[in-house]
Design brief:
333 residues
Length: 333
């Protein structure tokens, strides 16, 4: 059968798939390959369905979704397909070929449950069914068509997955020119849950406050260039991250934090609320060593940026500066 050649080709591995997750996929694929080599046709059908389910579950787990071990095959497959499909973009109509082709592949993979029930391993049987070449080949083709598409698409999905991106921002990963822009585009920030938009914004702001120039340009300055692409929750998160570090301390980059925050507030629907929340956070926060040593420069930059703050939020901005000044060592006022 021609499927012998198909199962010898390696599957594409997405860069951010963890080793233990890839091991689960590799195990399922190896079992399918062994079944084809041995011409164990019931096992071919059963293993084809298991491979699809394994890839679907890894897709969901890699993206940060919780999957119960008892979730039904079709539920897992549909959820995984939705996660991967978002890369195409929400503006693309449902009848577009780039949606219809993957949808057809998913429908083929969905039929593996029925094939497995009728012909495959996993069930004790009172009658042995004849597993023809057509049945075995249909199972392998259906499994590999969706699986290969899904794994290739997962690379782009994980490129923009929030948790790995936040981790890289927080843990000092290098961001070369264009890296963050590509990952934010893949993340499809406007379509994320507001909590995820906010979490991502905080991480971008904190990394920019640690003087990472590319992050500041591609994650913050880009908001001023194309304000319609950046939601309020993301902007609010960035503003907080520009002044509060991961340890909950007041922290800022004197050369950029205030100016960037003021620009972000210009396109926020409620800048006064954002600054009220920031004021509360700063009032409860101790000062990082950087903030202690650079507080005079930071406060000067905040005063300089005051003219860029929206009028309805200026009073709160001034109040934040005054409160910080009262906490400064007397010799530094």
């Amino acid at each position: 059968m021609v499927i012998r050649n198909l199962v010898q080709e390696p599957l594409p591995r997405a860069e951010w798939v963890q080793d233990d997750q890839w091991a689960a996929i590799s195990d399922a694929y190896s079992r399918l390959s062994a079944a084809v080599t041995a011409d164990d046709r019931p096992l071919i059908v059963g293993s084809a369905k298991e491979l699809v389910e394994s890839v679907a579950r890894v897709t969901l787990v890699s993206y940060g979704r919780v999957v119960a071990d008892g979730d039904a095959y079709m539920s897992v497959l549909r959820s995984a397909h939705q996660v991967i499909e978002h890369v195409i973009g929400p503006a693309m109509p449902g009848n577009h070929p780039l949606r219809q082709i993957p949808e057809s592949a998913k429908k083929m993979a969905g039929q593996l449950r029925e094939l497995r029930n009728a012909y495959g391993t996993g069930h004790g049987r009172a009658v042995v069914h004849d597993v023809t070449d057509e049945v075995a080949e249909a199972a392998v083709h259906a499994a590999l068509l969706w699986t290969r598409w899904a794994l290739a698409r997962l690379q782009t999905v994980l490129l923009g997955a929030v948790s790995p991106l936040v981790s890289d921002l927080q843990n000092g990963a290098v961001f070369y020119g264009g890296d963050l822009a590509a990952r934010l585009e893949a993340a499809n920030v406007p379509e994320l849950e507001q909590s995820e938009q906010h979490r991502l914004g905080i991480a971008v702001g904190q990394r920019a406050a640690n003087e990472t120039n590319n992050v500041r340009l591609e994650g913050i300055r880009a908001c001023a260039d194309h304000p319609e692409h950046w939601p309020d929750a993301y902007r609010e998160g960035v503003v907080q991250g520009l002044f509060i570090n991961e340890d909950g301390q007041a922290h800022a980059y004197a050369a950029a934090s205030a100016d960037c925050a003021a620009e972000l507030l210009q396109h926020h629907s409620a800048p006064e609320r954002v600054l009220s929340d920031l004021s509360t956070l700063l009032a409860a926060a101790s000062w990082s060593l950087t903030f202690q040593h650079k507080q005079a420069e930071i406060l000067a930059s905040m005063k300089s940026a005051q003219s860029k703050v929206p009028a309805q939020a200026t009073e709160i901005w001034v109040s934040i500066i005054e409160k910080l000044e009262t906490r400064a060592p007397r010799g530094d006022r």
